[in-house]
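User: I'm putting together a small comparison set for a docking exercise, and I want a reference complex before I start. The sequence is below, and the ligand is phosphoenolpyruvate. Could you produce the 3D structure with the ligand included, as structure tokens?
Assistant: Of course. I'll restate your input first, then give the structure tokens for the complex.
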Amino acid sequence: MRKGMGVSQGIAIGPAMVYKTRVIELTHRMITVNDVESEKKKAEAAIAGAKAELQNILDALDPKKDRAKCDLIEVQIELAADPMLQSKVNQYIEVSYRNVGDAVILAAEDIAKQFDGFCNEYYRARAVDIRDIGERLAAQAFGIKRASLARMETPSIVFAKDISPSETVMMDKEKVLAFVTELGSQTSHTAILAKMLEIPAVVGVSVEGVMDGERTMVDGATGEVLVLPSDAELATYEKRRKNFLDKRASLKKLRALSATTTDGYTVELCINIADPRETAKIKEAGADGVGLFRTEFLYMDAKELPGEEEQFNAYKMAAVSAEGRPVVIRTLDIGGDKTLPYLPIPQEANPFLGYRAIRLCLDRPDIFKAQLRAILRASAFGRLEIMFPMIGSMNQLYRAKQVVEECKKELAGQNIPFDAKIPVGMMVEIPSAAAAAQLFAKASDFFSIGTNDLCQYALAVDRMNVKISDLYNHFNPGVLRLIRNTIRAANEAGIMARMCGEMAADAAAAPLLLGMGLNEFSMNPASLPYIKDKVRGTSMARAKDIAEKAMEMDSAIDIQNYLEDLQ
Ligand code: PEP
Ligand code: MG
């Protein structure tokens, strides 16, 4: 048995699909003059094959639901037929005696390099598409079946070294039974997406030696991964899966009930989403609204920066389908492990500490304003709130709010309706902001504690690094003091104390956070019933006691054990 870290609960049993992002490399095999004509014919066939392959993908997509994906594929079809690419391929074959596979890779690379040099972001982004088409053509020429998470034939458990958040966005959600990756962590965005999609996932496991099609089993709660299980093991897992599904079904009964403690204190439970269509899950999960809309995934699912109109439609859809419940929209939080091919950020030694989120938005008012105008316009259709990520100084908060005011003025001047009283708040995920929460509370309509980043910055532990993941623990007494101070500052200032990091989905942490005075927990919809169950089984008086006791302890492990034993 292989053991990793379970990051998204659920049990899956199915064939393995070993996913490699870049499988095709130059062979450096030269051809002779006699092979030139036949290699050129193979090039033609490879182009025709790639076009047919792409057309099949396109035909299987719903243009209404998957507009961005359709656009991407259409661009690739055009590129595959590009005469410049074809003539370069022929040149490599005729002049340099390269075999067809190597010729297409080299030709695509030559063209991609020219696009790399453009100042215009749109053209620079084309380089990624061209390299991809080169790989697709080479796969055709070499007769290699190229794995794709966007289109899988058989429902499978995906084994990979790593899966990027953008690959997760593109994948076929019906066919991925579970993920197993070597890299990643509890709070990596791939894990976060897996939870949102309710796909079991395990990270930090070697995928060495796993073969395509082998029967495998994954337990996303315990982190267990079995390859070629025995019949006895299979029976145990089937039973475990049944229990898990039964428990989940029984918790669904809580849907219509509020998250009220036994002594009558009610908190809000909200869901985190990455796509406006997920707003529908509010009702399904029995939630009070959306506590975090990670808008960057709208940008990742596109081939260029989404414009104001496109974003307006997405936010309007969220506002309308929330049916009067609040939806907290976080402004673009790109950078760190989330990148956009069409918005290249120069290589950084520490991307999580770099040019990202609000820092980038304040530097790029064109991007920031398009998003803020879209949110403001959509606010006329429901209860939207604006939230800034990665606020580290009061100056940043004031500047960001200033841009909101500018957008409001512009819209008012154009007679475009918006909610003039839209709440504007901030994420507390940088330790300096948590320590000085009393200052920020004066200028923010609410706080939402982002424990994923708060933890990594407070503990100086990279949230993506599997090697040191044992050091990453939200029960660390230092982290808890930052959280307690933030909640206290919010309570004293009379603003909402929310939490939207992964800690909000940890059932063991719920009484502690409740006792500290947290008003809203926001999480992946699958975890919500567990937290509701926990809140409904606790009294506020007891939660306060629990928080007090936990804060007297001096180690994360002691606190964790104490809280887990209470369950
Ligand atoms: C966080 O940092 O806790 C958070 C919710 O934001 P993200 O995980 O998207 O960085
Ligand atoms: Mg964050």
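The chain has three domains: 2-21+148-232, 33-142, 253-565. The CA atoms of residues 515 and 545 lie 7 Å apart.
User: Thanks, that's exactly what I needed.
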